[in-house]
Write a structure and sequence with these properties.
It is a single chain. The protein contains two helices and two strands; from the N terminus they run ββαα. The longest helix has 33 residues. α1 packs antiparallel against α2. Helix content is 65%, strand content 16%. It has a domain of 50 residues.
């Protein structure tokens, strides 16, 4: 954590606040999982639109796989954050 301060003479106060710097890097599994999930939503929607049940089912499977991969990436990031704190 970094302490940051600022002076506000117009109101006669000095403010101190803490900022926790977090990595803005997103895990590659989060990105690819999110993309697969989005692709699955599109595929499922197109399947519904044209009445293709197989395409709908494939879309639902792609969404589930994408969500799983995205969550794996989030867990991996959380573990890295916790290990990095110790």
């Amino acid at each position: 954590m970094s302490a940051v301060g600022g002076s506000f003479p117009e109101i006669g106060h000095t403010v101190r606040y803490d900022i926790e710097w977090r990595s803005l890097v997103v895990d590659k599994n989060e990105i690819s999982g999110g993309a697969k999930e989005l692709g699955g939503k599109i595929k499922e929607g197109v399947g519904k639109l044209v009445g293709n049940e197989r395409l709908q089912a494939e879309g639902a499977v792609d969404q589930a796989e994408g969500k799983t991969e995205k969550n794996y990436g989030k867990v991996k990031d959380a573990v890295k954050d916790q290990v990095g704190k110790h």
